[in-house]
Amino acid sequence: MVSPNGNQSSAVLFILLGFSEYPELQVPLFLLFLTIYAVTVVGNVSMIVIIRINPKLHTPMYFFLKHLSFLDFCYSTIVTPKLLENLVVEDRSISIKVCITQLSFGAICVMTEMVMLAVMAYDRFVAICYPLLYTLFMSPKLCALLMTVSCSWGIITSIALTYSLLILSFCETKIINNFECEYSVFLSASCSDKYFSELIFSIFTNFSAFFTLMIILTSYLFIFVTILKMHSASGRYKAFSTCASHLTAITIFYGTIVFLYCIPNSKNSGLVVKVGSVFYTVMIPMLNPLIYSLRNNDVKETFRKIIDLKILSQ
Question: In terms of CATH architecture, what is 9-313?
Answer without folding.
Answer: Up-down Bundle (1.20)
